Amino acid sequence: MADFRTGEVLLIHKPLTWTSFQVVNKMKWLIKNHPSLLLDGKRVQPKIGHAGTLDPLATGLLIVCTGKQTKNIEKYQAQEKEYTGTFYIGATTPCYDLEKEIDATYPTDHITEELIQETTKQFIGKIQQTPPLYSAIKIGGKRAYDIARAGQTAEIKPKEIEITVFEITRIALPEVDFRVVCSKGTYIRSLARDFGLALTSGAHLTVLCRTRIGDYKLTESMRIEEFEKSL
């Protein structure tokens, strides 16, 4: 039987449109009456948190920790990540994905399969990447997305990330499918923006799935409904 007070590491397949926070809240509600949360006849409030945010429009592996395992969240967050997804070439959005409408279009007639494959090489290794303004990064004590949603702008400093694999798995312009293996702190939305710029065009992210965190794989995860049935 699971022991949520002592601590569990749960691999969850995050649904599309759910925030990572909503997943944690749902799971907290599901386990609140679990027998492992009884201590001397009293109900214990479960500790629970996730190890690495996924955007609402992303799916895939979310590591959820309970009890004493919440102390290891930073360890899981620091591990290498793997993603698959799709870039749309020739158009951009303010948030670099589908959360906002297209704000500009760009020529694509010059883009060939050879150019796409060659351009990936620019992003392999340690590179500087600027996170999106629509992100949870704090600027002057405020979340960047709160600044953006208020119609304001702010300077976000680039930071060093590392991409060890950037593989193009399908080209059907304007769509390009990819697989990326990268370090903590990498924004695939920003990679979409930068990839479009490197093609002398524009791009945004339309599909994203996190398939691995360290040695933990999406294929080993369960959906929220499956977790509920397992209790």
Tell me what you see in this structure.
The protein is of the alpha+beta class. It folds into two domains: 9-78 and 215-230, Pseudouridine synthase (2-Layer Sandwich), CATH 3.30.2350; 81-213, Pseudouridine synthase. The protein is 21% helix and 34% strand. It has helices spanning 20-31, 73-77, 113-119, 144-149, 188-198, 224-230, and strands at residues 9-14, 38-39, 42-43, 48-50, 59-66, 81-89, 91-92, 104-105, 125-129, 138-139, 142-143, 159-172, 175-182, 203-213, 216-217. Strands 1, 4, 5, 6, 9, 12, 13, 14 and 15 form a nine-stranded mixed beta sheet that branches. Strands 2-3 form a two-stranded antiparallel sheet.
Give a short synopsis of this structure.
The chain has 231 residues and is α+β, with helices and mostly antiparallel strands. The protein contains six helices and 15 strands. The chain has two domains: 9-78 and 215-230, 2-Layer Sandwich (Pseudouridine synthase); 81-213, Pseudouridine synthase (2-Layer Sandwich), CATH 3.30.2350.10.
